[in-house]
Amino acid sequence: MWYDxxxxxxxxxxxxxxxxxxxxxxxxxxxxxxxxxxxxxxxxKMFLSELKxxxxxxxxxxxxxxxxxxxxxxxxALDYLGTKAxxxxxxxxxxxxxxxxTKSWWETVDTIDEYVGxxxxxxxxxxxxxxxxxxxxxxxxxxxxxxxxxxxxxxxNAELLEKIMVNNFGxxxxxxxxxxxxxxxxxxKVNPTWVKDFLKKYNGKLDKLSIKEASKYL
Length: 218
What we know:
By secondary structure, the protein is mainly alpha-helical. It has helices spanning 4-12, 16-25, 37-52, 59-67, 71-83, 93-100, 106-122, 127-133, 139-147, 158-166, 174-188, 192-201, 208-214.
C-alpha cells in the first residue's frame, strides 16, 4: 500500500533509549520506537493530507496501524480517526469496539470513547447498545460505556448514565471505578445537583475512588 512508506519513515526515527523509557511509562505493556509526540505529529502531516482527500474512512490503514508492534502506530491511527470523527457512522461502532479490545490500555481507550460518543450522538438508538456494553465481559468496553458521554456536557442523558454506572457497581477494577468518578466529576460541572443527589442515593454502593473523583468540584 502507498502508506507503507509512512512506516518506513517512522521506523527511521526510532530511538531505542527513548523507546525503553516510553515503554516503562506504560508499564512495559507495549514496545515503543521512542518518537516524541511533536516528531510524530510532523510525520503525520506527510500523509494525513493524502488521507483527507477521501471522504471515506480508510479502515485498512487503521487496521494496518493496529497490527504494528510499536505503539506509535496506534497513536497515528487514532489521530487519523480524529480527523474523520464527524464521518464516523453507525456501522463503524463495531470496528471501534475491535480497537478497544485489542492492544487495550487507557491512553488508546480513552481516545476511542470520544469517537464512540460521536457515533451515538448521531444515532440515539445506539444508547441501548451502550447499556449492553456496560455489562460486557471486557472491562475496557465497560469503561467506554461509562465515559462516552463525557463531551456531551449539558446534553448528557443522565438516566442512561445512571443505568450504566449502576451496572458497574461492586467492581474491584481500578479503571472502572476511576471512570465512574471521572464521568460524575465532569457532569458535576454542568449539573452539580444531580451528581450530589446521585452520590447520596448510592452512598454505600460507590467505590471510595469513584466518590473521591466525583466530589472534586462539588
